[in-house]
Design brief:
Layout: H1 2-42, H2 46-54, H3 66-79, H4 83-90, H5 100-113, H6 117-123, H7 134-149, H8 153-162, H9 172-189, H10 193-202, H11 206-211, H12 214-238, H13 243-294
């Protein structure tokens, strides 16, 4: 009887050992699959990495979990700047996944990159917005960037008032850069197309200089001035009915009107150009803490 018991106990020990070894081997293989996938990012072989994550068993590795595979694909597509495909994968990463927070932050950022600020804000809802942890501050920091992209200065100021970004060195420098960009946005709002037109009506070229096109303003001032002087001289010497006055008077009038119209249009074009540059700078600045924390 004792021998039978020892035999049963021995078999049980062997079975438990086999299960433990299989489990350890499986986990090790899954871990090695994940590490192999990350290696593709490190060496810049993104397309190959996507193929690997899609079917690791073809390469002798165990399949990854659904959340992990979605996270890695999202990361790969993000590296390739295939934003829509990255979003499609990152949104599938579940709340219980260890990669959920990282996926959520990059998901929100990429929505903003595409100009979809509604979904950018919605993506961050699941992140705790407590002011005593870095995730809450990072969430607020991204939201402040969204506000600037939407030119909602009031919302930006409210976020800045509620959160002290200087508490976290990862966020603090970028937050200061956003403050500087806010100043440029306000400065651009103060540029008036009507003001530029009036200035050019008073002094040709001055409206262009007001916008920041100094060279163009100077050329307009010189060319309009030359034709104006020629028209005045023609009028003084030959009278209003002279051919010379008609030519130079027409040239002066054309340049003068074009100078006013060009100043008005120039404000709008310059604003658009500078706003595009500001938006690009905002997105780059928002990206810095994300890369620092998660890459």
């Amino acid at each position: 009887m004792r021998r039978v018991r020892l035999k049963i106990i021995g078999r049980l020990i062997v079975s438990i050992s086999l299960v433990f070894c299989y489990t350890f081997k499986t986990e090790a293989q899954v871990n090695s699959t994940f590490e192999a996938a990350l290696h593709f990012i490190q060496i810049g072989e993104i397309e190959e990495g996507i193929l690997f994550v899609s079917a690791p068993e073809k390469f002798g590795y165990r399949p990854l979990g659904t959340d992990t595979a979605a996270y890695l694909k999202g990361k790969f597509y993000y590296q390739r700047k295939r934003i829509s495909e990255s979003i499609h994968n990152l949104v599938q990463v579940g709340h219980k996944s260890p990669f959920h927070k990282e996926s959520t932050f990059f998901l929100a950022y990429q929505h903003a990159y595409l100009g979809d600020y509604v979904n950018a804000k919605e993506s961050l809802r699941s992140i705790d917005d407590s002011d005593d942890n870095i995730e809450g501050h990072l969430k607020a920091y991204l939201q402040s960037g969204f506000s600037l992209l939407e030119r909602d200065i009031v919302s930006y100021e409210e976020i800045i008032y509620d959160y002290d970004f200087s508490k976290f060195r990862v966020i603090a420098p970028s937050s200061e850069k956003l403050k500087a960009l806010k100043g440029l946005i306000i400065e651009q709002k103060e540029k008036s197309a009507l003001g530029a037109g009036l200035l050019s009506a008073i002094v040709p070229g001055l409206g262009h200089m007001y916008v920041g096109n100094i060279g163009r303003g100077a050329m307009t001032l010189v060319s309009t001035g030359i034709f104006g002087l020629q028209a005045w001289e023609s009028h003084k010497r030959d009278g209003l009915k002279s051919v010379r006055f008609a030519i130079f008077g027409s040239l002066f009038s054309g340049f003068y009107i074009a100078n006013i119209y060009g100043s008005v249009i120039g404000v709008r074009l310059k604003k658009q150009q500078i706003n595009d540059q500001i938006n690009e700078s905002i997105l780059v600045t928002m990206h810095v803490p994300l890369r620092y924390l998660f890459d």
